[in-house]
Write a structure and sequence with these properties.
Elements: H1 2-10, H2 14-66, H3 86-91, E1 93-94, E2 103-104, E3 122-124, E4 142-144
Antiparallel strand pairs: 1-2, 3-4
């Protein structure tokens, strides 16, 4: 009995601690790539969601203009029914015939691009060519990420 008490009081040997540490390092090394992929997948999902929200707001603005609910005084010549910039979607537009001065806001804020961490987006006007790399500035017809990264499926974020 006395031998058993002495062994329990000694604690773990250096070899036992080394083995446990090695096993933990191997497990951590196996989990790290999975965590990276999970984080990237989450950012991609957020990017898709943000792009969809902005595009829905652009479409809602277009519908308001097409149905004549936006006063012509608010429209720039040559805007083709699209908002002049993203800030217009946040600030809102007045409705024709509404004397109260209320504005219809289509976005609460300009979403952040999760790939770049900023709320800067690559914009395209209706008048721009589909492969244009710079925004013409007439209106906001389309939007995409400014990130040059590649998604898990092999496509470029700037092509989304």
């Amino acid at each position: 009995m006395r031998t058993w008490i002495r062994r329990a009081e000694r604690g773990y040997s250096f070899i036992e601690l080394l083995i446990v540490t090695t096993i933990l390092l191997i497990l951590a090394a196996g989990i790290q790539p999975l965590a990276r992929v999970t984080i990237q997948r989450q950012k991609e999902s957020e990017l898709r969601h943000n792009l969809r929200d902005i595009r829905e707001a652009i479409d809602a603005y277009y519908d308001l203009v097409a149905t004549g609910r936006v006063p012509s005084t608010e429209l720039k010549p040559g805007n083709e029914g699209y908002p002049p910039d993203l800030e217009t979607l946040v600030e809102g537009v007045p409705l024709a015939g509404d004397a109260s001065g209320r504005r219809v806001k289509l976005l609460r804020r300009i979403p952040v691009d999760p790939m770049t961490g900023e709320s800067e987006w690559a914009l395209r006007s209706y008048q721009d060519k589909p492969d244009a790399t710079r925004w013409g500035g007439q209106n906001v017809y389309d939007i995409r990420s400014t990130s040059g990264g590649t998604a898990l499926d092999g496509t470029k974020y700037s092509d989304w």
